[in-house]
């Protein structure tokens, strides 16, 4: 199969026609937020995100930690070992307070707007 100049132009035009659509998708793109775990604390401790966004917890500590919504069990990352990370997507609005399962005094919250 040969590609003629006309085919090439047609393909180009189709690509251009799709650009506004692609831009609309990009505008709605979900954001990934990072919560750092260090010195037995979540940072930021209180995070506000948009529905559909993802939170990634990065453990920069020497101990294993987790992020667990103890009141509603909406999410539980399980143990995140030192140097590792875990992610959770929040599809709908709500307030989520959470803690580290091994260290109950490590508390933080995520508000999904
Ligand atoms: Cu912990």
From TrEMBL:
Protein's UniProt keywords contain Zinc-finger: no
Keyword check for Metal-binding: yes
Blue (type 1) copper domain sequence ranges: 32-112
Pfam families the record matches: Copper-bind
Keywords on record: Copper, Metal-binding, Signal
Molecular function as annotated in GO: copper ion binding; electron transfer activity
Stretches that traverse the bilayer: none
Signal peptide: 1-29
Protein name: Copper binding protein
Source organism of the structure: Octadecabacter arcticus 238
Lineage, highest ranks first: Bacteria, Pseudomonadati, Pseudomonadota, Alphaproteobacteria, Rhodobacterales
